[in-house]
User: What shape does this take?
Amino acid sequence: MIPVERSIHGSGALGKSWRARPRLPPWRIAGCAFSGTLSPMFFALAFLSLLIERLVGYPDWLFKRIGHPVTWIGSLIAFLDRKWNRDGDSFSRRKGFGVAALAVFLGSTVLITSLLQLALLWFPLGLLIVAVLGASLPAQKSLEQHVQAVAEALERDGITGGRKAVSMIVGRDPDTLDEAAVCRAAIESLAENFSDGIVAPSLWLGLLGLPGGAGYKAINTADSMIGHRSARHEAFGWASARLDDLVNLPASRLTALLFVMAAFFVKDASPRQGLQAIFRDARHHRSPNAGWPEAAMAGALGFALAGPRSYGGQMIEARFMGEGGRRDLTAADIRRALKLARIADAMLIALFGILALAIVL
Assistant: This one.
């Protein structure tokens, strides 16, 4: 899940270009994280990280041997949850410990990756290594594979296979879903996870380098683990959930724009209807961010997404995104949504490449 980068000052001359220029301290080399300016290096980092992850993903053999940055961060969050989130404490005390836990796992993530990045950038090919590390943060290949698996399961095994496949990527009760609901769930997951699993980590990589991307991933992982409005986590996970809403805000808007632009290249899709759905429906979603990509995809493709759904036996009422769109979706519609997402992904990769070049030139 990470991208890579090469010389931003000339082809094949990375070592020579760095040796020929004055030896600046690494915090000046790193650019925006410390000087407050946009860094072409970080945009190139995001570009290469996305490109690498798009091509190879995160290898299974590597995951089996060392795990993944998300599992490392998750282990620390789970440890803090066990030690500091005590049932007998008051609501305010558990809330305070949740803030402290956020400071610990976010601070340690940013500190470690900052030191790692600064150390690697001293070396001629250090940026390439940082980019390889950054490629573990976005999840383009994994997301596409999981959503495509739902379409394949529906076509091969019918509703039983579709329910099983979609249960791997959504939390709603699979037994309550008919074929259309399975398809809607898969497409909603594609839209939302494209934003917080691809656009957001690459955006923070591009703005703040490896510490920005890893720090975002720590926040997002915490939100998925403890950011629930449950009896156990409503207080302890409050800070993580609020911060996740904040750091995902720019990515959700950018994702919606990418989906609208991608609709120009998908047969029978409508950029205009995508924009209309964003302005009409996005604000009605329970999440301040998820409604943007879901509404954009729904409107652009003529679908009705979201709506009522069941979690843990409890029916949750929700408004449809893309009101008036078609609800009887099929596996073919999942594939159409995947095509839109692939085009949007190519646009995202190109955007970071253009930004890196534009700032240099």
Notes: The two ends are 29 Å apart (CA to CA). The first strand starts at residue 305 and ends at 306. Residues 12 and 241 are 44 Å apart (CA to CA).
